[in-house]
Amino acid sequence: MSAPMSAISTRTIAAIATLAVAGSAAAADSPQFKLGTFEKDGRRFVGIVVRDSHVIDLPAANNGRPHDMKELIAQYDQGLRRKIVELVAAEAGGAKANVLELKALKVLPPIMYPTTMLNTAVNYVEHGREMAGSPSISPPGNEPGAALPGTVSAPGIWERRADDRRWNPYMFLKAPSAVIADGESVRLPVGRTQIDWECELAVVIGKTAARVSSADAANSIFGYTIENDVSDRGGRGDSRSGSDWLIGKSHDTFAPLGPFIVPKEFVADPRNLSIRFTLNGETMQQGSTAAMIHDVFEQVQYASNILTLRPGDVLATGTPPGVGSGRKPPIFLKDGDKMACTYEGVGTLRNAVTR
């Protein structure tokens, strides 16, 4: 896999590294946990996942609050994190109150539902190379990831440095209505036969972010989860206005999300995580977030200079090579397939495929 064509300044790298070290130091002082949304006996609640096997019912242990994941995220740094750490420590010490077995619960999407879902297109060089020839994705005759002829800054949004050889970020909206949980099935739309997978690291926004810099972006991030950016490669039957991203990305069930959120303090460096996607047990995608063209912090910067990001919003950061449509011959999803998308330290998102 090609190395990313990064042109991040030394000052920016130093700032991000400082934040990462600070987060790791905080994590070292507390037991690790994940956060999710669950259902039991018709009741929906947010829970604290420990050891990937047990869940602490947070509202039951905390006077009925928070009501949902968005409220948890908003209150996390206002004292709720301290309460969560206390509950995790008590569970580790043998406390059984409000502790449930994960296997006895229905896992729901961790956020129900993001107000805004953004995805970054072609953010790995090798993925661009495998998609070369698809004009709306990776124009032919141009090195994937390299600035296209005539590329200039996007005034007020993305100011290019003279030494930046990368193309500008490219983002699109994905409908929150497409979100499903770990374990739920992706449904193949009627009449659509070219359905593909894209295993992606998803950034969960923790604080309102408007026009932030890449150096400050980490302060706006709450944590990380996984999104499978399921994609319809079949087109719309004409060439009107180029690619139709609504058809391509937002069918119902085309955004498996989860299974849980890992707070950022437990992810030492989101720019260096291993990735693996399997289809029916066979490895199809394998790589590292180190190969991103624009890293997670730059993506938050770019997005927040277009629209205001709010707690609970999700930004999927692109997929490594190995998608089905990039293979010769192509491989598309079919009824009965089983997908597993894994990011180191974040978890594994599993979904079947059905008609």
Task: Describe the structure concisely.
This protein is of the alpha+beta class and 355 residues long. 18% of the residues lie in helices and 26% in strands.
Q: Key terms for this structure?
A:
single chain; 355 residues; alpha+beta; Fumarylacetoacetate hydrolase, domain 2; 2 domains; seven-stranded mixed sheet; five-stranded antiparallel sheet; 7 helices; 18% helix; disordered N terminus
CATH class of the largest domain: Alpha Beta
**Strand order in space, largest sheet:** 7-6-17-11-12-14-8
**Main sheet characteristics:** 7 strands, mixed
Kindly give the count of domains: 2
Label the overall shape: globular
* Fraction in helix: 10-25%
Q: Give the helices and strands as they follow along the chain.
A: HEEEHHHEEEHEEEEEEEHEEEHEEE
Structure commentary:
43% of the residues are buried. The protein has 7 helices and 19 strands. By secondary structure, it is α+β, with helices and mostly antiparallel strands. It starts with 9 loop residues before the first helix and ends with a strand.
Architecture blueprint of SSEs:
Blueprint: H1 10-28, E1 34-40, E2 43-50, E3 54-57, H2 58-61, H3 69-75, H4 80-92, E4 99-101, E5 106-108, E6 117-120, H5 125-130, E7 171-173, E8 179-180, E9 186-187, E10 195-196, E11 199-205, E12 221-228, E13 231-232, H6 245-249, E14 255-263, E15 274-279, E16 282-288, H7 296-304, E17 314-316, E18 338-343, E19 347-354
Parallel strand pairs: 6-17, 8-14, 9-19
Antiparallel strand pairs: 1-2, 1-5, 2-3, 3-4, 6-7, 10-13, 11-12, 11-17, 12-14, 15-16, 15-18, 18-19
